[in-house]
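Internal QA ticket QA-208
Title: Verify multi-chain structure generation after dependency bump
Assignee: T.L.

Test input:
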Amino acid sequence: MSSAKMIQPDLDFVKEITAQGGGESLKKCFQCATCSVVCNLTHSDKPFPRKEMLWAQWGLKDRLMGDPDVWLCHQCSDCTAYCPRGAKPGEVLGAVRKMSIRANSWPGVLGGLVGSPAGLLPLFLLPVFIFGAIIMGLGRLDHLHGPIVYEKLMPIPAVDTVFILTALFACLSFFLGVTKFWKAMSDATGKTGAQGSVIPSIVETVKDIIAHKRFDKCDVAKGRASAHKFVFWGFAGLAVVTTVAIIYLYGFHWESPYDMKNPVKWLAFVSMLSLLYGIFSVIANRNANAEKAGKGGYFDWLFIYIIVGVALTGTLSWGIRLLDIAPLAYTIYFFHLVFIFCLFAYAPFSKMAHMVYRTTAMVFARHTGFDK
Amino acid sequence: MAGTGTILVVGGGISGLTVALEAAEVGNEVVIVERNPYLGGRVAQLNKYFPKLCPPACGLEINFQRIKKNSHISFYTLTQVESISGGPGNYEVTLKEQPRYVNERCTNCGACEDACDVEVSNDFNFGMNKRKAASRPFEMAFPMRYAIDKAVIGTPSQQKIQDACQYGAVDFTMQPRTVKLNVASIVWATGWKPYDASKIDNLGFGKVPNVITNMMMERLASPGGPTGGKIVRPSDGKEVGSIGFVQCAGSRDENHLAYCSYICCLASMKQVTYIREKNPESKATVFYIDLRSPGRYEKFYNKVKADANVSFVKGKVAKVEAGANGNVVLTVEDMIGGGLVKQEFEMVVLATGMEPNTATDKVPASVQYDENSFLLPGNIIPAGVAKKPVDVMSSGQVSTAAALKAIQQVLAAR
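Actual output:
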């Protein structure tokens, strides 16, 4: 030690970790470092998650909030399975990630709402109110005669307006969050990055993510990596479908529903199956591994159920329309819009944000050589 | 033979012997029951005691002399308690004695061993070598008498052994027998077994060559052990020049033994001195989470630590892999030096803890155990490691206390 440093523990931070959502076991850690050794993702210079467990116990919030390792962890749970004290480092880091999302996301008040069960009802009612107001305001309930076409309930321009605004909001929030997070990492690690463009690091990182290179190194949570792949590719497919649909609509004025022979239809179908299979595998894996890996907290499950909601209402909107049960079809479609709104509008605050923050941490690590 | 007022001591290790002697030397009748063919228990397997580093043979020898001279003590070997009924002051106990096939005429000439062609795994040396099915349990065995394993029955060796003995000491007509005793007090001192290291799947035992346990190390270093006291590698017999000690191997670990066995830190420090004495060039590293060297043991720790060829590294070994040339590679996070470290050793010792025998062999009576299967005090009095993890010195204290409890039960019943 070259100089004495006063440590400023944030006890509320410790309480927040241990209060809810997977971090309850934090205080059981006795710093043996088994976790850092059994981890297949850690690096050798300052390995995780042993040091994160200590920082969390001591309430060193700033170090954790600027710690790329918190996000380089993919919660394989190998550490948790081998932990001699049941301290569940994987779960604790999950809880720390939740707080990292909240600390970085803007506006903070939404972060608080998404993170606590008390916020569930207002967050769900917001899109119900928005879409309800549009339907009532435009008097759409009177237009539902004849074959089921969802545009009768909700005009495309109205849907697009809502979701474009939502997307802009999410992008702005993510931009502010990522900027803040990057600065926190630079401050905490003292690394500002190599000279030159960050673009090559981003490209390589995205390649790694697409290949699930890190996730695939997990032992205990092997099943989680494949479940994640199904969800990931399901969403990727649906993103392509959405993009094509926008081009069809605004470029060629082709409106949905499309003909069964249209390949977009099939891509949508396969993507939806992948998403459904993936998300139910996630649930099955979590339940099967609960003893070894921990069962996760509210924050994890909220995100899982939002995806379940999106996938189920999406599939049913299609199926019930084919069965021609109009009132049910329109109701389900309404809730499909509600779930999609929840997915996108709350993305910067929910666990969905992991895709942005983990990517940012991976880019930071690659760009600065942090984990070499 | 035992009558009312007798104290039954179950287990003839250092704890049971202490209870028996403390009680008998103030005039109580004592019966010791031991399931092995010899008394002395785990201590008999040790090379040296810490911290004085004297051979256990010395302490055992004194106790065996005291037993020999004391007419109040009788003992059964190859015997286990089958059932217990009644209560303090008046227990009915049934013992089951297995045949030794050797009677008191044995002179330890060794002719039966020479004649025997059947070999069995040598459990006394933790299976590191084989022994003849007719053999003396160990060089200092008490009773000083051979024992013949059931494995020879029905083989050509049976007749050869019979013919080889000139003293009429071999007796294959011996049958298992049941003994009933009436006793006033029962002390349970059935001791411990080393935790099964193969259950710790990340530490390589049974998979990676040259990974042994601390109790195997005692036998390797012991003059009576499988190598005559040479500390060499099991895989190729090479003299060990570098050795790593993995502390808390399965200890303080809720996946294995949730508690600290108390002895393993000192045992490893002691074993460091074995190798440092035998090979002046040797290097030893002890990997630990925390070190326990309470009271006067601190001196011993300081002495071992002062050796320039000995390092202590804070961090738990959680990965053990085979290296080149039969070496063993350990991975650990050096929490003070910083960073993940891979270090290669010629041999590695897992400092495994003590699991009470009561975890698997329960007392055949209504008793209570703690969450780790140690026997809680009740009508039946626990002593030694049956009660809690202790070293030899503390077992003397725990066992003397148990003897006093037993004497009180005897007096209360009068």
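Spot checks passed. The longest helix of chain A spans residues 156-189.
Status: verified.
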